[in-house]
Design a protein that fits this description.
- The chain is α+β, with helices and mostly antiparallel strands.
- The protein contains 16 helices and 22 strands.
- The protein folds into 5 domains: 3-151, no CATH class; 169-268, Sandwich (Immunoglobulin-like), CATH 2.60.40; 275-386, Immunoglobulin-like, CATH 2.60.40; 394-461 and 513-581 and 682-702, Four Helix Bundle (Hemerythrin (Met), subunit A) (Up-down Bundle), CATH 1.20.120; 612-676, no CATH class.
- Helix content is 37%, strand content 19%.
- Strand 16 and strand 17 (341-349) form a beta hairpin.
- Helix 12 runs antiparallel to helix 15 (663-676).
Length: 702
């Protein structure tokens, strides 16, 4: 057989023992580190530590085995057997041997063949192996004991004496409440210090209670709700409940008195994530010459954790006025940083969006939290990148006054439609009051837009109609310009100017010979289209202010269609001369008939009390007598979202139910109900500022 084969055969037992020896000495350390990782970080940490330790141990063992090479084998054989005459190297030599060396190699090979290869391997490190495993066992036992002590529930805490008990009546002597939050919160389980519990919504609440003397049965009685029986165990009476809604409960047992104190179960709702824009600092940014990309940085925060993946929506608006083409793209963005406060950095290549002068690029980030089931999804504020449009050419040498067809605020009708559609989609997530406020706010925007369009057809905003002005004789010569002291009777100025009435300013400081419509006279077709749009806006405003956005949406789209038809021309020219007034109906002149001139007056609608149940109870509590506490209890449970402290109100109701004649408890409940009642609308409600985006918009206007 070849020297190479003999060489591998002689080294294999020695290398195998070297590998095994390293593994036996150091494997206890790997096991201890893995168990420690499990104790501190769970199964995932233990698996990670074990894999890393095993790889490190395998690498060290292989390094130890590779040191056993040809030179080591020759030295070991020569040192072990003197009869080899220090010539073992000739047997395992790679180069060709001379005649004398070949003869000596054959003689030594016969002597080596009589040696067992296993006998030349290094011996076992018996003391090191024994010491390593002894220390490993001690360390493992210590970790297991530490975990057992840490995971073991604490002893029952002594219960505070509540009410006096009769001899032989069971009373609560010990208590222990364990709170296990939902997994998505990442919070560890903990023990409460009292029976009043406040924990994340969806937590599992576990009670362990002790009584003296032992009752035949025990339970937790939810005030106005279910009864949770307790089971007797080694530590005491135990039971569990999922915390979903706020409620009050009592600890009851067979033979225990009924006058037991009520304790609170208060869930803490998971708040939706918050999104804010870090870069750019302004909500509207203009592109710079030569700019090829746009960096947008969002920051999302949540009370527990924000999902690492978010969706960026990029909307492009290309065109002018209402003739805008919209396109939308979406892409996934990965956040960085702390799970509770992640940052999302996006660099948008502008060349891929095909922007034109006057186009807008709107970026919005949609994030979600880690709540399970049903993560909360929030769409953050948008930032706008605008490619400036060139200035329009000036109309020179014209006898008419040229105006741009579409001022900037004419684009608001589409935004009214977008806001209405968004409100309809969010209806299920909003309270009735908040939904009404949002709908009314959009209605106000529609009204302002209607008034802005109305001034181009001579509409007198929110005023009663005026009688028609006498029409001048067509054959009369044109009147010259007027000035103070020209001999004409200019009439008297109005006695008291009306704030915001532009017509009164003209009447006070000058006079006109035509109607206000003369300043903005449109061609008949355009005028008819604008009036049709105004009629549709009026219907939309009426439904929005009444809280019916679904009914307003068709009218909003109709108004938008009419506005688009107006935009077929590139310019609208407005003559400076007076308009042709309609002929006067001589049969109606000086007749005193006002039919068709002044509309019917607005009718006052009685104020409907939405909170009739608590208002009735609040009045009834001032006098002795029976009160519908059950109806009041149901109303509070159904409206707990709009009440600051629903458990406090329920506790006051329960106290009055126990002692109906107590004037102190009735006064306490009356004070609680006063904070619940809705204030009457004595003044105009202030509009919201629109949040961060609204504040940026107002700042941009300034």
């Amino acid at each position: 057989m070849s020297s190479e084969f003999r060489f591998d055969e002689w080294l294999r037992p020695a290398r195998r023992r070297a590998l095994s020896d390293v593994v036996l000495v150091w494997s206890p350390l790997v096991l201890v580190l893995a168990v420690l990782g499990w104790a501190l970080g769970g199964v995932a940490a233990a698996a990670g530590v074990f894999v890393i330790g095993a790889l490190a141990l395998g690498w060290a063992a292989r390094q130890r085995a590779t040191r056993l090479d040809r030179g080591w084998l020759v030295r070991r054989l020569n040192a072990r057997e003197a009869q080899l005459e220090d010539s073992a190297a000739l047997v395992f030599a790679d180069a060709d041997l001379g005649p004398v060396e070949q003869l000596q190699a054959e003689r030594i090979a016969e002597r080596i063949a009589a040696i067992d290869p296993v006998t030349i391997a290094d011996g076992w490190s018996r003391r090191a192996i024994a010491a390593a495993w002894a220390m490993g066992v001690v360390a493992l036992a210590g970790i297991v004991y530490w975990q057992a002590q840490a995971s073991a529930p604490p002893p029952l805490a002594p219960a505070a004496p509540s009410t006096a008990t009769a001899p032989g009546e069971p009373r609560l002597t010990g208590q222990r409440v364990r709170i296990v939050p939902p997994a998505y919160t990442g919070l560890p389980a903990r023990f409460a210090t009292s029976l009043d519990i406040r924990a994340p919504m969806g937590s599992r609440i576990e009670w362990t209670l002790a009584f003296a003397p032992q009752p035949a049965s025990a339970a937790l009685q939810l005030v106005g709700g279910q009864r949770l029986p307790l089971k007797q165990g080694a530590d005491g009476w135990g039971g569990s409940l999922r915390l979903d809604v706020p409620s009050l409960y009592r600890v009851t047992a067979e033979g225990m008195g009924e006058a037991q104190p009520a304790h609170r179960l208060e869930p803490v709702a998971d708040e939706p994530p918050q999104v804010r824009v870090i870069e750019p600092a302004s909500g509207l940014v203009m592109t710079q010459p030569g700019q090829r990309s746009w960096r947008v940085v969002f920051e999302a925060s949540d009370d527990y954790a924000v999902d690492a993946l978010a969706r960026l929506t990029v909307t492009t608006a290309i065109g002018e006025g209402e003739n805008v083409r919209f396109s939308e793209r979406s892409q996934s963005v990965r956040g960085i940083g702390d799970p509770r406060r992640r940052r999302f950095v996006v660099d948008l290549p502008l060349a891929s969006y095909g922007l034109q002068p006057g186009s807008d690029l709107v970026a919005q980030l949609t994030v979600a939290d880690t709540r399970a089931p049903g993560p909360q999804v929030v769409r953050g504020p948008g930032v706008i990148l605008r490619l400036p449009a060139p200035r329009p050419p000036q109309a020179e040498g014209l006898d008419l006054m040229a105006k741009q067809q579409m001022p900037a605020y004419f684009r608001s009708q589409r935004q009214v439609i977008i806001d209405t559609e968004a409100l309809i989609k969010q209806r299920s997530n909003l309270s009735a009051d908040e939904f009404m406020v949002r709908s009314d706010t959009i209605g106000v925007d529609q009204r302002l837009l209607r008034l802005r369009y109305g001034q181009f057809v001579g509409m007198e905003a929110e005023e009663a109609p005026r009688p028609p002005m006498p029409t001048a004789d067509k054959d009369a010569p044109a009147e010259p310009d007027h000035y103070d002291g020209d001999g004409h009777d200019h009439g008297a100025a109005p006695e008291s100017p009306v704030f915001g009435d532009l017509g009164n300013i003209t009447a006070e400081f000058g006079h006109v010979h035509d109607e206000s419509e003369a300043a903005t006279l449109l061609d008949p077709d355009t005028r008819a289209l604008l009036k049709s749009a105004l009629d549709a806006m009026w219907e939309a405003e009426l439904n929005l202010r009444s809280g019916r956005p679904e009914a307003a949406l068709p009218f909003e789209n109709t108004a938008l269609d009419y506005i688009k038809q107006v935009q077929q021309a590139t310019r609208i020219y407005l003559p400076r001369i007076g308009s042709q007034q309609p002929p006067i109906d001589m049969a109606r002149r000086l007749a005193g008939k006002r039919e068709g001139i002044v509309g019917g007056g607005a009718q006052l609608t009685p104020f409907a009390i939405e909170d009739a149940v608590p208002a009735t109870a609040w009045r009834a509590l001032a006098q002795p007598g029976a009160i519908d506490l059950d109806g009041l209890d149901q109303w509070v449970r159904g409206n707990s979202a709009r009440i600051g402290d629903p458990l406090g109100v329920l506790g006051a109701i329960d106290a009055v139910r126990g002692e109906p004649a107590s004037s102190r408890l009735r006064a306490k409940l009356r004070a609680q109900l006063w904070t619940v009642l809705t204030r009457p609308p004595a003044q105009v409600r202030r509009r919201g500022d629109g949040g961060t985006l609204g504040q940026r918009y107002m700042q941009g206007l300034r």
